[in-house]
Write the structure tokens for this entry.
Amino acid sequence: MRIPKAHIVLVLGINHSIPIHKTKQSQAMEKGNLTIMISRTCHDHHFCIAILLSILLFSSLLCFDYFAIFHSPNHTVTFLATNTDSCTGRYIYIHHLPPRFNSHLLHNCHSLTRGTDKPNMCPYMQNLGLGPQILNSQSQHVFTNQSWYATNQFLLEVIFHNRMKKYECLTNDSSLASAVFVPFYAGLDISRFLWLSNLTIRDSSGQDLLQWLEKKPEWKTFWGRDHFLVSGRIAWDFRRQSDNESYWGSKFRFLPQSMNMSMLAVEASSWKNDYALPYPTSFHPSEDIEILEWQRKIRYRKRPYLFTFTGASRPEVEDSIRGKIIDQCRNSTACKFFDCGVEKCDDPVNVMKVFESSVFCLQPPGDSYTRRSIFDSMLAGCVPVFFHPGTAYSQYKWHLPKKRTKYSVYIPVKDVNKWSVDVEKVLLGIPEGDVLAMREEVIKLIPNIIYANPKSKLDKFQDAFDLAVKGMLERIEEVREDMRNGRDPSIGFADEDHYKYTFSDNYS
């Protein structure tokens, strides 16, 4: 916990209504009288000299002609000490929520299995949410160190919370805080109720949390606009737009208090107070050297396949491009299709072996716009190929470059039924120099898209957590600036961006 250093201000007030000029004769007489007085009363030689020097210095200050320097009457001289507090503008206060909103969910992890392909989520709670560690003996020489874990993608909120507990600029004084973190495990909580038809149960936890928050003094400072929370599920799971039982999710993000807050999720919705964070991968380094070793390994990796697709078809999803992509991949000797309907796609070793062997990795939308595979493939140095702007470009603005051509290939699919692009032909047409440049950019981006081990801290690199905190602090400061300038901070804060996921000229 950082203790803020105070600003030190020394003010010297000079009142020239009191005459301070003296003649040389009067100054000499005063010095002489002081010397005589000391010599009569002082018996310790060294002590007397010290007193004499002090008095002479003091009298010199009195005789100094301040008026020659400070021409205006009642002039004030201010000396400001340099502010060395590196946490200024970065302090974060963490709400201490009732256990039912976070820790109790972990203790009852057996109830979190619904909606995942895991019969038991409890093993994934190990190592502060990173999951079971993958030993070198299990990695088949794919990994370079002991910083790899079988991480479940839904546990981002747990990983983020544990990282936040070690954040260097935490404060117990909420008046100093630039932001307030709400460690509500929203994704884990809603996972228990998403398939229930009872809307009251689906919405209950979110409503109870907001009622708890609005009673706190921290809420009343900005009415929640400096509050943020994190979800390991997509933001759409909290944006049910009707109270019809057939509609998906809860309405947590449409409740008035929640609309004043910001949510960071693995996929943002089209509302402006939702922000996207990278899905957690299996790599959680403890030191910078582990990142450098991994980057060095994949930089010189031989890649026998031009492109790969790891996933399964989505026949139940309307307008899914996956079927056509799978057909093209199967019909090409330059493509590796890793069928998640048959293979173990939840095994990090299997997945990374495929991605490491490919130059390009196809990333079509799945059940939603985004997928964890984006970040697993980039971690392997594989250049992502996107087919929709909502898969990455309009999502991870704090973590990926604005210029998409630096690190990815874009093949827009505006109409699946009319789409007839030959993916292999497009990829073969990219100059080799451009391919190498994109791969190098992807490798450089690796620190941006991983979450370091919560037990340690990287020195040189900023990881996905660091960039998320930085982005959130900057966004909250923009709100404060609006308020300082007399603008209503609610205007535009939680509005829907109807063009966020459209095919604009910026992406095509």
